Amino acid sequence: MFKPADLFDLSQTSHAAIFDGCNFAWEALAKIKAYLEANVRPALHNRCEGVAFIGKQVYIGEGTVVEDGAMIKGPALIGRNCQIRHNAYLREDVIVGDHCIVGNSTELKNAILFNHAVAPHFNYVGDSILGHQTHLGAGVVLSNFKSFPGNITVELDGQPFDTGLRKFGALLGDGAEIGCNAVLNPGSIIGRGAMIYPGVNWRGILPANMIAKNKAAIEVVVKRVRGV
Predict the structure, then answer these.
(1) Given this model, what pLDDT does residue 225 score?
(2) Which terminal CB of the chain, N or C, has fewer other CB atoms within 10 Å?
(3) Domain boundaries, position 108
């Protein structure tokens, strides 16, 4: 499930060429910078509501709304009919498809969003790829950097496999759903249609159409009035 086509419908991005020659989908992350340098033709076809900062190396498609307080540093390619909401922060090397939402206080860095990907509230998306119709609940963090030295590894044939990346957040296959306040640790790969419940601290690979639940016990006790 590591090939680009295993995770993503490549017809749901205008930038499928970035995956050319990639045996593993995460290899595209190292190609974003050069791809943008070669393909950004700065133009702003969007509408601004309020005042936003938009860098010089940015292209934004028609119908996209950029709200007050957003910062798009660039280089960046942003598609049509997107919402870049209040105080969104798009750092360097970002590719956003059509009909996407980048929400309030959401931060993107070296990331690819396929069409209809949604990161609407307080999300961190670093060195990650969000497939077609993926959805992040409020507060979801795609952690991209491990505390220990060395590159990010993934499990391949039961053994750690070096991705060659010091920073690598997550790959979210088409239609994946990540619940509120979940944390995906570096190198997480979520299959198509898979779901992670709210509050889960996830590490590793979740196959397509599977659900990861948090089994933490919840204690219910009688409410007592203080001072009695």
Answers:
(1) 80
(2) C
(3) 4-212
